Amino acid sequence: xxxxxxxxxxxxxxxxxxxxxxxxxxxxxxxxxxxxxxxxxxxxxxxxxxxxxxxxxxxxxxxxxxxxxxxxxxxxxxxxxxxxxxxxxxxxxxxxxxxxxxxxxxxxxxxxxxxxxxxxxxxxxxxxxxxxxxxxxxxxxxxxxxxxxxxxxxxxxxxxxxxxxxxxxxxxxxxxxxxxxxxxxxxxxxxxxxxxxxxxxxxxxxxxxxxxxxxxxxxxxxxxxxxxxxxxxxxxxxxxxxxxxxxxxxxxxxxxxxxxxxxxxxxxxxxxxxxxxx
Length: 278
Ligand code: SF4
What we know:
Layout: H1 3-25, H2 31-54, E1 55-68, E2 74-85, E3 90-96, H3 100-105, H4 107-124, E4 131-136, H5 141-148, H6 152-161, E5 165-168, H7 175-190, H8 199-202, H9 213-216, H10 228-236, H11 245-250, H12 255-271
Parallel strand pairs: 3-4
Antiparallel strand pairs: 1-2, 2-3, 4-5
Iron/sulfur cluster binds next to helix 10.
């Protein structure tokens, strides 16, 4: 299949997927955001064409059943990966929406998860595996800016600098300790121990980035309005006046976020998310 035919197919699938998600979830996005998402997908394809066209198994479900927690609960570990096989090698890819900066600074976290998947693939399925890697789907800010300015020279430059593939060594000796970590999390969830991160963590920058935990993680957390740590962070951020507490209640994102949210909802109503009721 020629590149232009693949791109046409991507556009087609993108529209179909969006429509399906809109109908299933009842959520819509603005035309601007939708165009931006498609642009990201197309750049992503341009950059990873080699991997994308060589993938032999997509969305392979890996399962490690019959695990037992320290408190005797049974659980199963599941994961989804993509596999590329050629005559010489087999690669396993785990796709993440996280940005490269964060992945590169926290490789050991990602390696742990991939070690478990590698273990399932090799030991339980008896399949060959030579390399594992993470694919970061986050769109680099510099490339986004170049695209917005329609600066072809800069676009090419930023594309050449962008390397969304992060190779990771896999080490089977670490598998048991990772499974134990999972098991402890299962026990904590079942025991209803949902302690949020202490406020000191929220006020710290995240490893390998310049962003605070509170802005990078909590801003996207649906539980923030009932989270004691976030409440404390919001109350004491800035100059620390008590009046700042109001910001916590009013924190619905930037003006642009709010406008997009309103437009998306108006659009959804106009387009009829309740089509069936007309
Ligand atoms: S707001 Fe969410 S992510 Fe942040 S500390 Fe609270 S529970 Fe954790």
